[in-house]
Amino acid sequence: MWSLFLRDIRLSIRAGGGALTGVIFFLAVIATIPFGVGPDLNLLARIGPAILWIAALLGCLLGLDRLFQADREDGSLDLLVLGHDRHMLALTVLVKCLAHWAGSVLPLVIAAPLLGLFMNMAPIGIGATALTLLVGTPAITFIGAAGAAVAVALPRGGLLISVLVLPLTIPVLIFGVSASYGAVADPDPFLQPFLILAALTLFLAVLGPLAAALALRHGTD
Amino acid sequence: MRLIAENLGGERGGEPVFSGIGFALEKGEALVVTGPNGAGKSTLLRVIAGLLPVAGGRVRIEGGGEDFPSIASACHYLGHQNAMKTVLSVAENLRFWRDFAGAGLLSVEEALETVGLGGIGHLPFGYLSTGQRRRISIAKLLVSQRPLWLLDEPTAGLDKASEARFGGVMTDHCRQGGVIIAATHLPLGLDGAKALVMGETV
User: Fold this and answer.
1) Does B54 reach chain A within 8 Å, measured CB to CB?
2) Chain B residues close to A17, C-beta within 8 Å
3) Which of A191, B3, B75, B163 could form a disulfide with B25 if both were Cys (CB 3.0 to 4.6 A apart)?
4) How confident is the model at residue A84 (pLDDT cuts 50, 70, 90)?
């Protein structure tokens, strides 16, 4: 399992991997927002956490279509599915999700504090947003894995995955953003939405890979 | 170990491709599946491996013991694709499959020597020619131990010398008590293999 994790990490950082696409997309979105909204620093600071979260959400969805498709095209997916007796397929999917998250989404979380400065956010707000992204983005990957598994056989499944997955990620977005706001706007709580966000991630860490494994087992042709 | 198929049927996209296939293979036996394009050779192999649902009849393994309770756990499936990543080196690819599928008798270097490609382990898989890629996926059969080999056109793209070497590899596997089912258009150099011709009764 560890070797699968290492292989996928290697693939994401070698030529043609998706490690940088998400970050560059994230950077492009955040850098354009101030030009569109205008130089109102208070407004930027107020919408900052929400914009960071939305951009991160879309950045997460960007590379998801390759999660299983790359393995399907070169025949690896058949062997991963056949290895079910040795390594439970849901566990294989979980490891692939974790590798995808560490390879493609973690760079985005690391870039978030820097981009928070672009949005004139307070240091505590930046910290809270980065923390909620760290805890919340794995949930998006886990939901996305189920979408990617359903759309694995479709040649241009990327858009379909986004459409399938986006409604399901809304709770993650809501609690992520409300926890980020809770850290800066005083009467709002931080801990409660943050804990629900953590619970969502743990819950989806089980449900997402199970659903994806089911879809992959019945999707071979 | 015995592999038994009874009245096996397979379909693709709801269309029946073949039906009524039956065979029994004992330890050390090989079955060569031939037939025209579209006769269902690849479908048969995928049905046996469990990658496609069985449309009729059944296929099962007997006496696989604790290590190999099901066909999926007992088989190496070599499909049309090589299941290797082009950006990783040959050795990285093989080492991954060795770790994932369980270590076999041969190390990665020994397996590469066996297919006659020793010393190229450091090259990215994408740099290799078609025939060399095929030989690397044959090396993949050797780095993990599985009694049943399901081979789909294993010699596609191989030159004469590599074909002969692969014939030797398969003969060794059978001699050690393995079972081979190979779908092919080319002679494989397997002595005493059973033959199954598909597409004639349809």
Assistant:
1) no
2) 87
3) B3
4) confident
- In angstroms, the CA B105 to CA B169 distance is 13
At residue A92, the pLDDT reads 93
The span from the CA of A94 to the CA of A108, in Å, is: 20
- pLDDT over threshold 70, residue A33: yes
The length of chain B is 202
> What is the per-residue pLDDT for B201?
52
Q: Are strands B56-62 and B75-78 parallel, antiparallel or unpaired?
A: unpaired
Beta bridge partner(s), residue B3:
B25, B61
Other beta carbons within 10 angstroms of residue B143's beta carbon come to 25
Domains, in order of start, for chain B:
2-197 (3.40.50.300)
Instruction: Report d(CA A62, CA A105) in Å as an integer.
Output: 10
Nearest-CA distance B171 → chain A (Å): 24
Q: At A39, give phi and psi (nearest 5°).
A: -80, 35
**B58 by DSSP, 3-state: which?**
strand
CA dihedral B118, B123, B128, B133 (to 10 degrees): 60
